[in-house]
Amino acid sequence: MSTYVVGDIQGCYKALNRLLKKIRFSMSRDQLWCVGDLVNRGPQSLQTLRFLHDFGDSVRLVLGNHDLHFIAIYEGCASTRSGDSLNELLEAPDCQQLSNWLRQQPLAYHDCLPTKAGLENFLMVHAGVAPRWNLQNTLDLAAEVELALRGKDCHEYLRNMYGNLPIRWYEKLKGPARLRTITNYLTRLRFCDDIGSLRLDIKEGLCAAPAGFKPWFEYEKITPDATILFGHWAALEGHTGKPHVYALDTGYVWGRRLTAMRLEDKQLYSVAP
After folding, report:
1. How far apart are the C-alpha atoms of 260 and 263, rounded to whole Å?
2. Could you tell me the pLDDT band of residue 117, with boundaries at 50, 70 and 90?
3. What is the distance between the alpha carbons of residues 98 and 60, in angstroms, rounded to a whole number?
4. How far apart are CA 47 and CA 89, in angstroms?
5. Cα separation of 108 and 166, whole Å?
6. Residue 246: which of 254, 236, 255 has the closest Cα?
7. What are the CA-CA distances from residue 92 to residues 140, 205, 213, 263 (Å)?
């Protein structure tokens, strides 16, 4: 049995199929982890979700910002944007089933696996974590959003999910502002300062860091307890320069590569367009 974690798929169903064939993935033997952004931008979001839904217990995933955006549109809490490629999914007869399935998925996932280095803890998120969050804190805060998303009043969360404020985490935050801030760290974070102030407007690579800001993984406190797996930041091209923090989004939807890593030995596999 092997466990593979794959970067942002973004509706690139054919590429995912080619990658799984390359690694000889077996649904009965192996497990596939997905770092979020399963849908949007690419051409086959519907086929991607149907495919992963049918994996059953062989798949583990976390939600990304594009996945949440799709759910919000389906639930009537947001409108489509320029660049979205969700129409086929939104018009599908099983769209409600797929949206409900996504609503049950976490924003942070933790597991312990046997690897070449021994038993190893892994934390999977879509984008990142705040500088002062530890492993349990991250899972607990993610659970607050998951509870809101799964509840009968999910529309309140989805309507208030969008926006860049507050710019940093305070434990005393309450209500929609608290849930929005947690969501922004877990699904949109790239650059922050040492107290966690966010710069969500900058999407380029490391050279684009404003004065006083660094990539979030320069501040994180989790890696003594767990290896972090994330996507979202294609401009990194899979490189963080930091042990135990792995960037899996290598920008297939932008014409680069779709990448998977086998967790047991950190072996990388990828396919190009």
Report:
1. 9
2. confident
3. 15
4. 8
5. 21
6. 236
7. 34, 36, 43, 34
Strand partners, 230: 247
- Do the beta carbons of residue 74 and residue 96 sit within 8 Å? yes
Question: Is pLDDT at 152 greater than 90 in this prediction?
Answer: no
- Measured at the CA of 245, the angle between CA 243 and CA 251, to 5 degrees, comes to 125
Provide the whole-model pTM.
0.97
Residue 114: cis peptide before it, omega within 30 degrees of 0: no
Q: Which pLDDT value is given to residue 223?
A: 97
Are the beta carbons of 257 and 237 closer than 8 angstroms? Answer: no
Q: pLDDT by residue (tens digit) across 225-270?
A: 999 999 999 999 999 999 999 999 999 999 999 999 999 999 999 9
Q: How far is CA 39 from CA 32, 52, 92, in A?
A: 16, 11, 14
**Smallest Cα–Cα separation from 3: which of 21, 19, 25, 18?**
25
Residue type, 117: A
Taking the C-alpha atoms of residue 165 and residue 161, their distance in angstroms, rounded to an integer, is 10
User: What's the confidence (pLDDT) of residue 24?
Assistant: 96
The pLDDT value recorded for residue 86 is: 97
CA atoms 84, 104, 54, 230: torsion sign: positive
